[in-house]
Design a protein that fits this description.
globular; 7-stranded mixed beta sheet; 8 helices; 39% helix; 2 domains; Rossmann fold; alpha/beta; 7 strands
């Protein structure tokens, strides 16, 4: 069986692959072609990330598509592949993980995802944090089922995956909460005409500042490597938030 997780960026993809490796024993697949798997059709290697993983004879692709604007392209490519493929070679599960840009944006995001799927004949009512199954017909006239899960993160506030991680860090203990709050306050007070001009970059900086205080000896470690060293699978908030993707 093949599944795919689509998320916005490289950091998201790295963290999700790490989490599933720790909780469900998904292993990085070094030679996908040997297993008969094709490369995902990324368009920009600088901004995107795509890799294959395996567990108990199943295969999982994790694709950081580069931005929310690229979900339509990525979903389209996955569905186009499914329509032309047969049986077990198709993707049977799709997860889409996207940021909550506005507090009330979840319904808008879900409706947009529904439109992306409908353009290629998969009519589905997607719900946040709940698996739904939709039938569709492949290019050979066979009726197939596709399981779809959407996660709009964080679940209860405006933000991104970094916001979700900061919340998890702040709830570990009182000292960690103080570090997170001070880091957010520092970035918020920074008024620069040169740096952190986009809100998305400010959220990333809040997480980076927090980790720099908590792990000063690793401050020059690439952020993706640092994220993999933190035992996220032990944080209750992360466990609860990612519970549904463990069913992949």
């Amino acid at each position: 069986m093949k599944s795919v997780i689509l998320c916005e960026g490289k950091t998201d993809a790295i963290l999700i692959s790490y989490y599933l490796g720790r909780t469900k024993n998904w292993l990085h697949l070094k030679n996908p072609k040997k297993a008969g798997l094709t490369s995902l059709p990324i368009r920009n290697e600088e901004n995107e990330f795509a890799d294959w993983y395996t567990c108990d004879g199943r295969y999982l692709a994790i694709w950081g598509v580069g931005s929310k604007d690229n979900f339509e392209y990525a979903i389209g490519k996955i569905l186009e592949y499914n329509i032309s493929a047969r049986g077990d070679s198709t993707f049977q599960k799709i997860v889409v993980i996207t940021d909550r840009d506005q507090l009330d944006a979840d319904q808008q995001k879900l409706e947009e995802l529904c439109r992306h799927f409908a353009r290629l004949g998969v009519n589905v009512q997607i719900q946040n944090r709940r698996w739904v199954t939709s039938p569709y017909h492949d290019g050979f006239g066979n009726e197939m089922n596709l399981d779809i899960l959407a996660l709009v993160i964080p679940f209860d506030k405006k933000g991104a995956l970094e916001t979700f991680l900061l919340d998890a860090l702040s709830r570990k203990d009182e000292e960690d909460r103080k570090v997170v709050e001070a880091s957010i306050e520092f970035i918020s007070s920074l008024n620069s005409q040169k740096y952190l001009l986009a809100e998305r970059m400010r959220v990333k900086a809040e997480l980076a500042a927090t980790l720099a205080v908590m792990y000063p000896d690793k401050v020059f470690t690439p952020i993706n490597n640092l994220l993999q060293e933190i035992p996220w699978e032990k944080y209750p908030d992360i466990q609860e938030g990612f519970r549904e993707i463990e069913e992949i």
